[in-house]
Write a structure and sequence with these properties.
Number of domains: 1
Mean pLDDT: 92
CATH architecture: 3-Layer(aba) Sandwich
Structural class: alpha/beta
Radius of gyration: 18 Å
Number of helices: 8
Distance between the termini: 43 Å
Largest sheet: 8 strands, mixed
Oligomer: single chain
Low-confidence stretches: 15-25
């Protein structure tokens, strides 16, 4: 299983083909590069911002992540245009990357990024209470982690960013892992599947990790366990022939959201795997979801 390699293929398809669907957009968005949202071990954490000519007030936080690897070279303006063509401002967030950083640290980066965006929203024509989050594969997982575990800021923090909330108001993403305790089938812990050994490092799992700790770690990083009746509206797009992240992962999380009466939607792509030709049209469906749930009423 190679989530990272498959994401690269998916991203290439999305970013290359996306230009076809947005050629009618005459006004180029303004790109602000290397906006620093935090620091870690003396290194800046940054994002690029794509602001449309006529912002709608909706902010979309795009997770630049595949296999929990994040790289500025994977920020693609044509992908951002899918959202800016709807008037949505896009924040392409680069996080601390595996293998240097572990998932617990990566998740903290995303909390920080959301807090920073909310604090500085007005500078980009964005309503701080109309933030959506998106990504594919690992990026979809991180999106749902914010849906499940976004939290209020610390009112006593000296840093105004840390006083802001990391909650998001909508999610729309591609083929995310959602439940590592029940991966592909009920009772199958992803931290015990030999073919996933290449990804154990980001979870801080080794051959010596006890079964009890594997269960704890798998649950900690499974967004399905943090969802509740106040979770944000969520749309997922997933191919039913995905060999890397089983569609079962999306089915079970949508089932839970439905049981909680949270607006949700699963778009199944028959016969499609971990990315497909024409996926740019589905990228537009993510933007439409944000228009529906984050647009002014």
């Amino acid at each position: 299983m190679n989530l990272r390699r498959s994401w690269s293929v998916f991203a290439a398809l999305l970013f290359t083909l996306a230009g076809v669907s947005v050629q009618a957009q005459n006004e180029e968005p303004t790109r602000v590069q290397d906006v620093v949202y935090g620091h870690k071990l003396g290194v800046a954490l940054s994002m690029d911002v794509f602001k449309p000519a006529k912002p709608s007030g909706i902010g979309v936080i795009w997770m630049v992540s595949g296999g929990w690897v994040s790289n500025h070279n994977n920020i693609e303006p044509r992908q951002a245009k899918i959202f800016t063509s709807h008037g949505q401002t896009v924040f392409c967030v680069v996080h601390g990357s595996n293998p240097k950083f572990f998932l617990r640290e990566i998740v903290e980066d995303i909390h920080r990024a959301v807090r920073f965006i909310r604090t500085h929203a007005a500078e980009y024509g964005v309503d701080p209470n109309r933030l959506g989050i998106s990504g594919g594969s690992a990026g979809g997982h991180l999106s749902l982690m914010m849906a499940a575990y976004g939290n209020d800021g610390d009112p006593s923090a000296k840093d105004p960013v840390e006083r802001a909330s990391s909650k998001v108001q909508a999610v729309a993403c591609f083929f995310p892992p959602t439940d590592f305790l029940n991966y592909a089938k009920e009772g199958q812990n992803a931290m015990m599947i030999p073919t996933l050994r290449g990804y154990w490092n980001v979870f801080e799992v080794t051959e010596k990790t006890s079964d009890e700790d594997r269960i704890r770690i798998a649950k900690t990083f499974s967004p399905i366990y943090g969802l509740n009746e106040k979770s944000p509206p969520t749309r997922i797009i997933h191919g039913d022939a995905d060999p890397l992240v089983p569609i079962q992962q999306s089915q079970i999380v949508i089932a839970k959201l439905k049981s909680l009466n949270v607006p949700c939607d699963l778009i199944v792509k028959p016969g499609k795997g971990h990315g497909w030709l024409g996926i740019e049209k589905d990228g537009d469906k993510l933007a439409e979801w944000f228009d529906t749930y984050l647009g002014k009423k």
